[in-house]
Amino acid sequence: GWLGAGLLIGGCFAFLVIRSARYRLSIEGELEAAIRRREIAVQYQPIVELATRRCVGAEALARWHHRGTAISPDIFIELAERHGLIQSITDLVLDRVIAELGGFLRSHPDCYVSINVSAVDLTSRRFLDYLGQRLNGTGIEPAQIRIEATERGFVDAQAAVQVIQAFREAGHPVYIDDFGTGYSSLSYLQTLPVDALKIDKSFVDTIGYEAASSSVAPHIIGLAQTLGLDVVAEGVEHEEQAAYLYESGARFAQGWLFSPALSAEAFMRFVEAGPPGSVTARSTGTGKP
Ligand code: C2E
Ligand code: MG
Ligand code: MG
Ligand code: MG
């Protein structure tokens, strides 16, 4: 009767309340709240030209400080991907880049920031459209915002190729991130319209520890050269690695040898300071080289 129906409705209600409370208390609920409160920060890791050590740009890396601890992006990005939150993070990172470095990019037209996108960002033009709207009227050139996509991002290969092509047509260079860690690299590389490969840190780590002949890095660089693509080596920690990569033909690199990821302010200072040992216009005050 009525009592049974009342209990049933009450039960459902209690269930929903408990479920939503659980969600709020769960780590994904906390991540969602952090995104809503815009508590995801961004750090910038300088990317340098190996020949000159000049800083050419930075990779934007998302940061989440949760209850006083830094959660690794490897954990919260995966969490965000699983719970449908990643597109909000991609947007938030872009918003921060524009807010924190917009003026700097306008006055440094040769400098760029690359943004990591996830598989879902490559299934439609949604992020590209958002990017276009956000850049409109800022004076930032499209080539100053670059896109890093991992091979994991090519789950729907046909859609990804189209979206990547659309980014490039809009003037945003596209990089394959963590190159070599995916599984079908070679087969799709020929058909994939990209501008550069980022050599995964795992191929840089082995340099100097194994016989040079067993290093895969020069082969990836050779492949990139054959295809007319630029190369950025990631995770460079030692001078020997930088020298070996440079001799093998890599033009660009990032890693703790040059700089860890920095706050926006520290990144701007890093660019203004110029390569180590250089005398910048700022420090001489003459404006002459
Ligand atoms: P990734 O895109 O390959 O980024 C490079 C990672 O290597 C960063 O780790 C960086 O801090 C680290 N790294 C750079 N140089 C060195 C070095 O010399 N030694 C060592 N040991 N590590 C170095 P991080 O910041 O922990 O990011 C991990 C991954 O999380 C990134 O790998 C990227 O795949 C993902 N990620 C970070 N931010 C975002 C984001 O905004 N969106 C998306 N979709 N993914 C992101
Ligand atoms: Mg990356
Ligand atoms: Mg990478
Ligand atoms: Mg990596």
From TrEMBL:
Q: Name one GO molecular function term.
A: cyclic-guanylate-specific phosphodiesterase activity
Instruction: Supply the name of the protein.
Output: cyclic-guanylate-specific phosphodiesterase
Instruction: Give TM segment ranges.
Output: 1-18
> Might you report a single GO cellular component term?
plasma membrane
Please list the residue ranges annotated as the EAL domain: 24-275
Keyword terms of this UniProt record: c-di-GMP, Cell membrane, Hydrolase, Membrane, Transmembrane, Transmembrane helix
Q: Report where the shown chain sits in the full-length sequence: first residue, last residue, total length.
A: 245 to 533 of 552
**Reaction(s) catalyzed by this protein?**
3',3'-c-di-GMP + H2O = 5'-phosphoguanylyl(3'->5')guanosine + H(+)
Regarding the membrane, this protein is recorded as: Multi-pass membrane protein
Major location (coarse): membrane
What EC number(s) does its UniProt record assign?
A: 3.1.4.52
Give the first-level EC class, as a single word.
Answer: hydrolase
Q: Does the keyword DNA-binding apply?
A: no
Q: Does the keyword Transmembrane helix apply?
A: yes
Its localization reads: Cell membrane
